[in-house]
Amino acid sequence: FKNTIKTIKYYVLLMSGGPGSGKGTQCEKIVAKYGYTHLSSGDLLRAEVASGSERGKQLQAIMQKGELVPLDTVLDMIKEAMIAKADVSKGYLIDGYPREVKQGEEFEKKIGAPALLLYVDAKAETMVKRLVKRGETSGRADDNEETIKKRLDLYYKATEPVIAYYEKRSIVRKINSELPVDEVFAIVEKAIDELK
Ligand SMILES: Nc1ncnc2c1ncn2[C@H]1C[C@H](O)[C@@H](COP(=O)(O)OP(=O)(O)O)O1
Ligand SMILES: [Mg+2]
């Protein structure tokens, strides 16, 4: 690659929040309005597996055993995807990463400091309700009540501390995601526009 990550001066926005809080829904609207490059760590991993590459095969083996994909692998994939879009990107929207404080620290070291963290916040009860409903049509194996409980536990244990970590730098904007989608987006827009 000709570009290094140093040439990437654009905004990095992190999208954080619990499972079912509405991250994906808001990301879609952000992309439509601002044209940012949307990178979802889960999508990147699944695409790598689907490509049949050597790394994809290794990832698949790890995931089949139910183990965690090494932190460096996920981060390298995000970084490569960022570099690949460096010439055309207006900014990056990173969805679902970092999942734990360690991942946030590594992100800083290898990529840089994000400009904003949108903390999409909904009550546990609301997230469960939305995921159960999403599970009726999503075809996602993890949208069932038992797995949802585990994902929520992991979120509160590992991911919420990430928000506290960035709060110290005052880049966190808390978004009330109990509201209807368009009202949530109005708050998101305000937070992004304040950056400019
Ligand atoms: N503000 C809102 N009000 C009502 N339903 C919402 C909502 N935001 C999202 N949803 C619905 C859409 C999905 O079926 C479900 C989960 O949303 P999602 O965007 O897929 O969440 P996430 O990506 O955070 O897991 O909830
Ligand atoms: Mg999502």
Notable features of this structure?
single chain, 196 residues, Rossmann fold, five-stranded parallel sheet, disordered N terminus, binds 2'-deoxyadenosine-5'-diphosphate, binds magnesium ion, ATP-binding
Describe the structure.
With 196 residues, the protein is α/β, with parallel strands linked by helices. It has a single domain (12-194), classed as Rossmann fold, CATH 3.40.50. Helix content is 56%, strand content 13%. The chain has 8 helices and 5 strands; from the N terminus they run βαβαααβαβααβα. It is globular and about 45 Å long. Bound molecules: 2'-deoxyadenosine-5'-diphosphate and magnesium ion (MG). The site of 2'-deoxyadenosine-5'-diphosphate has 16 residues, from α1, α6 and α8. Residues 23-24 line the site of magnesium ion (MG).
Terminus-to-terminus distance: 30 Å
SS-based class: alpha/beta
Individual helix count: 8
CATH top level is Alpha Beta
Catalytic activity: a ribonucleoside 5'-diphosphate + ATP = a ribonucleoside 5'-triphosphate + ADP; dATP + AMP = dADP + ADP; dAMP + ATP = dADP + ADP; GTP + UDP = UTP + GDP
InterPro entries: Adenylat/UMP-CMP_kin, Adenylat_kinase_CS, AK1, AK1/5, P-loop_NTPase
Family: Belongs to the adenylate kinase family. AK1 subfamily.
Main location: cytoplasm
Short description:
The protein is of the alpha/beta class and 196 residues long.
